[in-house]
Specification:
mainly alpha; 3 helical TM bundles of succinate and fumarate reductases; 10 helices
């Protein structure tokens, strides 16, 4: 316990927690996107995918709980590191550092908190159906939960779609900055590799944003109906 306490209370340990939880969450974001993009293949594909996830039973909820725990740890330790960094540097250095950092970097805490709120809404909307309980009663001809119809109905609401697009936009901005920071913590961001990680982070962030935003946009445009 002393070793764990020392690790979590040290600056290096906290950076590693933020980096590793961020890496795991990034993997989930990509995997979740690949699964959801099956909506463009039609009801059969996305409903089969939904049925497969549901068939995993308790394992699915364990995975969800694990992801939520990692998300909370990621946010908490990011805030702790930010507070420590601000307390450790002189005011003049803080002004200079602010000019050198990007807008995304300065907004990491706030964008992270807003993304957390978006994720909670997303779960209440499409997972637990608290936003609209009628979604739970949607079934296709094979008796599976009609994920396709649920997504179409959900994204047909312009306010919900706008919030969804804003949420994934903030997520992409957060990932863009966090991607390079991740490899810096892991010791893989050298002077030569820094431009590569920066451009890779930008490209992946844009792809993730376009992928997630394409679904509500397609529904609103009538491409998916």
């Amino acid at each position: 316990m002393n070793a764990i306490s020392s690790f979590t209370s040290s600056s290096i340990g906290r950076k590693w927690i933020v980096a590793l939880t961020g890496l795991a969450l990034f993997g989930f974001v990509v995997g979740h996107l690949v699964g959801n993009l099956q909506i463009f293949l039609g009801p059969e594909s996305i409903n089969r995918y939904g049925a497969f996830l549901k068939s995993t039973g308790e394992l699915l909820w364990l995975a969800r709980i694990g992801l939520l725990v990692m998300l909370v740890l990621h946010i908490v330790y990011t805030i702790k590191l930010s507070i420590e960094n601000r307390a450790a540097r002189p005011e003049r250095y803080a002004v200079t550092k602010r000019r050198a950092t990007t807008f995304a970097g300065r907004m990491m805490i706030w964008s992270g908190l807003m993304v957390f709120c978006f994720i909670v809404y997303h779960l209440l909307h499409f997972t637990t159906h608290n936003v609209d309980p009628s979604y739970a009663a949607l079934h296709d001809a094979q008796g599976r939960h009609d994920v396709y119809r649920m997504m179409v109905l959900g994204f047909s609401n312009k306010a919900a779609s706008a919030f969804y697009i804003l949420g994934v936009g903030l997520l992409a901005m957060h990932l863009n900055h966090g991607f390079a920071s991740l490899f810096q913590t892991l010791g893989l961001k050298t002077t030569k590799l820094a431009p590569f990680w920066h451009k890779t982070g930008q490209a992946l962030s844009w792809l993730i944003f376009i992928g997630y935003a394409s679904m509500p946009v397609a529904v609103l445009a009538g491409v998916i109906r």
